[in-house]
From TrEMBL:
EC number: 2.5.1.-
SUPFAM superfamilies xrefs: Undecaprenyl diphosphate synthase
Protein name: Isoprenyl transferase
Active site: D15, N63
Sites where the protein binds substrate: 16-20, 28, 32, 60-62, 64, 66, 183, 189-191
Residues reported to bind Mg(2+): D15, E202
The encoding gene: uppS_1
Length: 237
C-alpha cells in the first residue's frame, strides 16, 4: 500500500501567466484572468488532498516595476478577486488572510481586504494566505520596526528577542512554516517570497505555466515531496 505524506502547508508562486497568454497571441492580462481561475480550482484541490494551509504569491514588492498598464490591470483583477472571494470563500469554508505591506495599497483595496478577512475569520476549512505587495525582505524590515518600537516604549527588553519572538511579530505569526514550496513557470528562484519562513522548506520547480497547472500537477509535486526524507508533515494512507 502506498503511503503518501501530505504537506500541512504549501506555498505557491504562481508564475507564467504572461508567457501562457503570449503563446496564445493574447494580451498578458488574459493570462492573469486565466491564472485567477486556476487559483480558485487549486484552493479546492489542495483542501481535498488534505492540505491545511495554502499561501499564494499574487503580487510582489518588485512587481510594481512592471509597465503601468499591466500593474493597473493586475490591481483591478486582484480587487475583483477579493470582492468575489467573500461569497466563494464562505461557501468553501476558507479562512482568508492577506500578508504583505497592505498600507501601500489604495483605500478601496484595504477595505476589501478587511471585509474579506472579517467575513471568513470563523471558517474552519482551508487556511488561505494571499501575499499582496509582499516581499520577504520588506516583511523582515516591518517586523524589526514593530519590535524596535516595543523596545523604545519599554514594552520589551532587547535581550528577549529570539527566533520565537521575532516570528510572533511577523505577518505569518499564527501560521506554521511551509513544508513545500512550488514555483510554476520554469524559473528557479525564490524572488523574495517568505524568506524567513522558508528557511527549511522543500523546494519544487515545474515548467508548467500557472494557467495550465491542474490537480494532477499538484499531486505530482506532493508525490515528489513525499519521497523526500521529511521530519514532519501529515501521513495519510
Ligand atoms: C505571474 O505571471 C503573475 C504575477 C506576477 C502577478 P507573470 O506575469 O510573471 O508571467 P510571466 O512570468 O511573465 O510569464
Ligand atoms: C514573481 O514575479 C512574483 C509573483 C509571482 C507574484 P516575477 O514573475 O516577475 O518573477 P521575478 O521577480 O522575475 O523572479
Ligand atoms: Mg513571471
Amino acid at each position: 500500500m502506498n503511503t503518501i505524506k501530505i504537506p500541512k502547508h504549501i506555498a505557491i508562486m504562481m508564475d507564467g501567466n504572461g508567457r501562457w497568454a503570449k503563446r496564445k497571441f493574447m494580451p498578458r492580462t488574459f493570462g492573469h484572468i486565466q491564472g485567477g481561475k486556476t487559483l480558485e480550482a487549486i484552493c479546492k484541490n489542495a483542501y481535498d488532498l488534505g492540505v491545511e494551509y495554502l499561501t499564494i504569491y499574487a503580487f510582489s514588492t518588485e512587481n510594481w516595476s512592471r509597465p503601468k498598464d499591466e500593474v493597473e490591470g493586475l490591481m483591478k483583477l486582484l480587487k475583483e478577486y477579493l470582492n468575489r472571494s467573500i461569497e466563494t470563500s464562505i461557501k468553501n469554508n476558507m479562512r482568508v488572510k492577506i500578508i504583505g505591506n497592505i498600507k501601500k495599497l489604495d483605500n478601496e483595496f484595504q477595505s476589501s481586504i478587511i471585509n474579506l478577512e472579517k467575513a471568513t475569520t470563523n471558517c474552519t476549512g482551508l487556511k488561505f494566505q494571499l501575499a499582496l505587495n509582499y516581499g520577504g525582505k520588506d516583511e523582515i524590515i516591518r517586523t524589526t520596526q514593530k519590535i524596535a518600537l516595543e523596545c523604545l516604549n519599554n514594552k520589551l527588553d532587547a535581550s528577549a528577542i529570539n527566533e520565537d519572538l521575532f516570528a510572533s511579530h511577523m505577518d505569518t505569526s499564527d501560521i506554521p512554516d511551509p513544508d513545500l514550496f512550488i514555483r510554476t513557470g520554469g524559473e528557479k528562484r525564490l524572488s523574495n517570497f517568505l524568506l524567513w519562513e522558508m528557511a527549511y522548506t522543500e523546494l519544487y520547480f515545474t515548467d508548467v505555466l500557472w494557467p495550465d497547472f491542474k490537480k494532477d500537477d499538484l499531486k505530482k509535486a506532493i508525490y515528489d515531496f513525499s519521497k523526500r526524507d521529511r521530519r514532519y508533515g501529515n501521513v495519510i494512507e
